[in-house]
Design brief:
The protein has 3 domains: 168 residues, no CATH class; 210 residues, 3-Layer(aba) Sandwich (UDP-N-acetylmuramoyl-L-alanine:D-glutamate ligase), CATH 3.40.1190; 128 residues, Alpha-Beta Complex (Protein-Tyrosine Phosphatase, Chain A), CATH 3.90.190.20. It is globular, with a radius of gyration of 28 Å. The protein is built from 21 helices and 15 strands. The chain is of the alpha/beta class and 535 residues long. Helix 1 packs parallel to helix 5 and helix 18 packs parallel to helix 19. The longest helix has 32 residues. The strands form 2 sheets. It has a 9-stranded mixed β-sheet, sandwiched between helices. A 6-stranded mixed β-sheet has the order 10-11-15-12-13-14, with helices on both faces.
């Protein structure tokens, strides 16, 4: 019958629309670490954008009812248009089609099929039992069909969460199996030394630096990239850890109390480095005290003969009063002390003083006091694990800045200080102090800071005030996101003609390269680069 063909065409267009929409929300869910509460907060925060994408679907209902003969065909085509209009643009970090995502997609498709069958079946049964189909029957069928599909599409952000909840027992069983395998691998290597590294900032840099230094004597494995969640660590162990490895350097990230302990219960570190404690991920942690408690889960998990390495320059770490065996490090403070910092166009030189009183001169291509702190922590740990200071001088000299963490780059006539990775209040202070050391026209390009809960506007306003003190030009990315930064900038009576607000990072770069440096060097600090779920 023609009506069945039309309904099939309508549902085909609808299915395409659902697939495109579901893919977007799954991508955001992946970026939000598959945390339902974080995803719900994201949905709430981005409700205007979500409604803007969803509400046009309401036109499907009058389209289907006002056009008796062609309504379903037009409705199906309109769904395809909605899918095209809401298609995802090129992402900075695209959706990774992991097995979990594939399972989630399958469940969403099953739920969608169920909704379609639920809308289609009443009409089918009605038509099946009648020799003739009345106009009223057709209109009723189209009303039910359009209403069910529209409501389902509007609810799509939550359909993804429902699908994940349905999959929860399966995911838990799979994760437990992988965790058990990882624990077994660690248990089979009793001679393996595990070094855990955590902190609100600096942990990834210290991980790379320490791995480079320890490699002067040992066969070392580190968690790659940002594999610092429980499952990221588990995956590293299962796929990369070999019997020939002598040291495993394990970065440990956290968004909630208990996250670090969960990782420690798998890898059982003997050594732990806490690089910093600061206001990051306050949306989930709520308070600085919770962040302190979580970071020190690493130190509390160490065995009796274990050693915690603590950043002596961090006031929040010092305030904890950790009394078990520890070694401190820092710039001008700590058991391992980096003193007499000398900066030049080639990097930084300093003198390292050990607890024994031994001294050694070091030089590095890295810039900034914060980087010297991180190198000092790596030196302290490597030296404690048996690598002589004299064997560490060459590796320190070869250290490269970690990508997007105060890394110097030259692009045309602009010197870029790339600090685009996950900014935070303390990190912005470090970055701006580094920018202030340079001679020339100083520019900052930033979208500001996120995940700071109800303190976000406060910290961003303060950030704006500090930008105004250091910079000659300020380029903000995202009008709504940067309102509090702009407020702080204007309160310092900054030249309005040098405050540039852009909608996209591409537009910001165009504005950057249009700045007339008047024969001076143009130095641009890129501070933070928000992931797709914050844009």
């Amino acid at each position: 019958m023609l009506i069945f063909a039309l309904i099939t065409m309508f549902l085909l267009g609808y299915a395409i629309c659902v697939v495109f929409g579901a893919k977007h929300y799954m991508h955001m869910y992946q970026l939000n670490s598959y945390k339902p509460r974080v995803q719900q907060q994201w949905i709430k925060k981005n409700s205007k954008s979500i409604w803007g994408k969803s509400l046009p679907a309401l036109l499907i209902i009058p389209i289907c009812l006002l056009f008796p003969k062609t309504g379903l065909t037009i409705g199906g085509i309109y769904y395809i248009i909605i899918a095209y209009m809401n298609r995802s643009t090129k992402a900075k970090k695209p959706l990774v089609y992991t097995n979990r995502v594939k399972r989630l997609m399958t469940t969403v498709l099953i739920l969608t099929l169920g909704a379609c069958v639920g809308a289609f079946l009443p009409a089918y049964l009605t038509f099946l039992n009648k020799s003739t189909i009345s106009y009223q029957d057709k209109m009723s069928a189209k009303l039910v069909l359009s209403l069910v599909t529209v409501l389902y599409y509007i609810a799509l952000p939550y359909i993804v969460l429902i699908a994940d909840y349905i999959n929860k027992p399966i995911e838990k069983a799979i994760n437990n199996k992988f965790i058990k395998e990882a624990k077994s691998i660690i248990a089979s290597m009793p001679e393996l030394k595990v070094v855990g590294i955590t902190g609100s900032y600096g942990k990834t840099s210290v991980k790379y630096y320490l791995t480079s230094l320890l490699s002067a004597k040992y066969n070392v494995l580190m968690t790659p990239e940002s594999y610092n969640t429980t499952l990221g660590v588990v995956r590293t162990i299962r796929e990369r850890l070999r019997a020939t490895h002598e040291i495993f350097v394990c970065e440990m990230g956290a968004r909630n109390v208990g996250d670090i302990k969960e990782i420690c219960d798998i890898v059982h570190p003997k050594y732990g480095i806490i690089t910093s404690v600061g206001p990051q991920h306050l949306e989930s942690f709520k308070t600085i005290d919770n962040i302190k408690k979580t970071k020190f889960e690493l130190a509390d998990s160490l065995p009796e003969d274990g050693i915690a390495f603590l950043n002596a320059n961090d006031e929040n770490i010092a305030s904890v009063g950790y009394n078990r065996k520890n070694i401190t490090y820092g710039v001008d403070e700590g058991d391992y002390k980096a003193c007499d910092l000398r900066l030049s166009s080639k990097g930084t030189s300093f003198t390292m003083i050990c607890p024994s009183g031994e001294r050694a001169e070091f030089s590095t291509k890295l810039i900034g006091r914060h980087n010297v702190q991180n190198v000092a922590g790596a030196i302290a740990c490597a030296n404690t694990l048996g690598v002589p200071l004299s064997s560490l001088q060459a590796p320190v000299r070869r250290l490269e800045a970690v990508e997007h963490r105060l890394k110097l780059k030259k692009q045309g006539n602009v010197t870029i200080i790339d600090d685009a990775y996950n900014s935070n209040p303390n990190g912005t202070k470090v970055a701006l102090s580094t920018l202030a050391m340079f001679d020339g026209i100083k520019v900052i390009v930033t979208p500001g800071m996120v995940e700071l809960g109800d303190k976000q506007d406060f910290y961003n306003k303060d950030f704006g005030e500090r930008c105004a003190d250091v910079c000659d030009y300020i380029i903000l990315v995202g009008r709504k996101q940067t309102e509090s930064i702009a407020l702080g900038v204007r309160e310092k009576r900054f030249d309005e003609s040098r405050l540039i607000i852009c909608d996209t990072i591409d537009e910001a770069f165009k504005k950057l390269y249009m700045i007339d440096a008047q024969g001076k060097e143009l130095i641009a600090l890129l501070e933070n680069d928000l992931p797709d779920n914050f844009l």
